[in-house]
Design goal:
alpha+beta, Adenine-n6-DNA-methyltransferase TaqI, Chain A, domain 2, 2 domains, 4-stranded antiparallel sheet, globular
């Protein structure tokens, strides 16, 4: 079977992992609340922020974006942007502690509390911001409520429109009710939740430090440098939800090494598409199927065996890289990588290919894809075999530790939110 390990990152609790809070059942009084809790319309708890901001051309502004699945409110881009570069001049000013959500993506958990560093930032009318009625509900407690599947389903229920462009009906949304215990009890639960997640935060911090250490390690070991006339985007894990991508920078920046010879991939590897496997003929079995976006399920037959690398060819995540071993099926939406040269090890080659961040080289058409020639014309530094082994061993050990820390962090957060849910509803902890 394949030897690959899945690396996952969780900033906030994913809604699909939480206990099942059924909105329909709640609204039909089929779910019993714990004694003593009253239901309040959301409209009684938050007040629409209408502080307008007319942008000035020579003034710099912070813009915001809201991550999906309750992952929080963050600054859009790394730098401030001047008013002259923003087409929509009539916007809204937001403040620390406000609740904000995206009209379009609220159904996907795009909401959160404005952090201190975004005080005074601006938003368009596609974002709704509210002051929280602190006489009735603590902002921290409201934030916990919004981190539940129940709240996400409220947003789903209050959204209408065409698929992919469904907007929240504000009136319907504000009319929904949520449980609101007394403020002393709210504070107790907030403190309890924060206490339980403190270790989770420490584990996440440790993992992020380890990621930075990997950045430094790779730069030093391989002598990586960039063109002086290009802006470096940084060496980092681009996708923290699956810590299996060791990425450097975008395709506009060339890859240089002052320490080792750079060799074109066409001198090191051979690429070949897999074999077509229609979904109608795919039968669940013992062999993993790899497609354009990575593993796509299993099959009762295999067509390849042994150690090799798979690169996604077609799909949104084309360019993804997987080192596999055993028996498996590779579809025609992916490339099968065979080694031509003994100058590289499989383990180092996997790291080097992920470093290239191949998804940035995709061609956007009906389906995103990456061409065989594009990959083969790229170059990687090739240290001696002893150094390759040292690098691969170190990276694997660090990935394993990062994965362990992040999975523990995820578990602690999920358990904390389950306990919070259990305190309000008559649900059984699993």
């Amino acid at each position: 079977m394949p030897t690959e390990t899945a690396f996952k990152y969780l900033n906030e609790v994913r809604f699909m992992t939480l206990s099942n809070w059924s909105v329909g059942a709640i609204l039909n009084d089929k779910v019993l609340y714990k004694d003593g809790f009253k239901l309040e319309p959301i409209g009684n708890l938050i007040i629409r922020n209408r502080e307008k901001e007319i942008l000035e051309d020579d003034k710099a502004y912070k813009q915001v974006t809201i991550k999906l699945y309750g992952k929080g409110v963050v600054q859009r881009g790394e730098e401030l942007i001047f008013g002259k570069d923003i087409s929509t001049k009539n916007q809204f000013r937001i403040s620390e502690g406000q609740f904000i959500m995206s009209k379009i993506d609220a159904r996907n958990g795009a909401f959160g509390i404005v952090p201190a560093d975004l005080e005074g930032a601006i938003t368009t009318q596609d974002f709704l911001s509210y002051n929280i009625n602190t006489e009735k509900i603590l902002p921290e407690f409201f934030n916990l409520i919004t981190g539940t599947k129940y709240f996400a389903e409220l947003c789903q229920k209050a959204s209408s429109g065409t698929t992919g462009r469904q907007r929240v009906d504000e009136k319907a949304f504000l009319g929904f009710k949520i449980p609101v215990p007394d403020k002393d009890l709210q504070l107790t639960w907030v403190n309890d939740f924060q206490s339980k997640t403190a270790k989770s935060i420490r584990l996440e911090t440790s993992a992020l430090t380890a990621i930075k250490d990997l950045e430094k390690y790779q730069s030093e070991k391989l002598g990586i440098s960039v063109n002086k006339n290009e802006k470096k985007k940084g060496l980092y894990f681009v996708n923290l939800k699956s810590l299996n991508r060791w990425d450097v920078w975008n395709k506009s920046i060339e890859y240089h090494s002052g320490s080792y010879e750079l060799l074109p991939l066409k001198a090191l590897i051979k690429l070949q598409s897999g074999k077509f496997l229609p979904k109608s003929k795919q039968k669940a079995g013992d062999y993993i199927v790899y497609g354009g976006n990575g593993p796509t399920g299993s099959h009762d037959e295999y067509i390849f065996s042994g150690k090799r690398i798979v690169i996604g060819r077609v799909g949104e995540y084309c360019g993804n890289v997987h080192l596999i071993d055993g028996e498996y099926w590779i579809t025609d939406n992916a490339f099968k990588v065979d080694k031509l040269s003994e100058a590289v090890t499989w383990e180092y080659l996997e790291i080097a290919l992920k470093t290239l961040q191949l998804n940035n080289f995709r061609v956007q058409s009906a389906q995103p894809s990456i061409a065989q020639g594009t990959i083969l014309n790229l170059s990687i530094p090739v240290p001696n075999l002893a150094m390759q082994k040292e690098i691969a061993n170190y990276v694997h050990a660090q990935r394993t530790k990062i994965n362990s820390d992040l999975e523990k962090s995820e578990y602690l957060k999920v358990e904390a939110i389950k306990e919070f849910e259990s305190a309000i509803f008559n649900i059984r902890l699993k």
